[in-house]
Design a protein that fits this description.
Blueprint (H helix, E strand, L loop, with lengths): L9 E7 L5 E7 L5 E5 L5 E5 L11 E6 L5 E6 L2 E9 L4 E7 L5 E4 L5 E6 L2 E6 L4
Antiparallel strand pairs: 1-2, 2-3, 3-4, 5-6, 6-7, 7-8, 9-10, 10-11
Length: 130
């Protein structure tokens, strides 16, 4: 059971690494942008983005994790013109990207490109992790 700030939680977007080791999920009513789960045990690893905004409840509309499990991209309903990218190992917000419309996100299989889709189309962004 995932603690969602005392509010009822509703499942949201989900993604996982190709090996199934890490799962990232967003929830309506969560206490951060999204959370990581151990794909083998189902145990909560940590929330990402807790305290990065001055609001109490987050609502991720799209999440994507790089295939190596190093980074997570998040878009949410409360900031519909923004994509945030977190480094998983230490929950550091490494990049915030402004976009013109409410986005959905997906990392490419190699993790070096982030696709951001809106009702106007899809834009590819080179993502350098070094």
């Amino acid at each position: 059971m995932i603690d969602c700030t005392g509010n009822p939680c509703e499942p949201g977007p989900i993604d996982m690494t190709p090996d199934g080791k890490l799962i990232v999920a967003g929830m309506l009513g969560g206490k951060g942008d999204c959370f990581l789960v151990d794909g083998y045990t189902g145990e909560l690893i940590r929330w990402l983005g807790v305290g990065t905004h001055d609001r109490r409840v987050w609502d991720a509309s799209s999440v994507s994790i790089t295939p190596d499990g190093e980074y997570v991209a998040v878009a949410d309903h409360d900031h519909p013109k923004e994509v945030r990218i977190y480094r998983v190992r230490d929950d550091v917000l490494v990049k915030t990207m402004k976009v013109p419309y409410r986005p959905i996100v997906k990392f490419a299989p190699r993790g070096n490109v982030l696709a951001i889709g809106t009702w106007r189309g899809v834009t590819l962004y080179e993502f350098n992790t070094s």
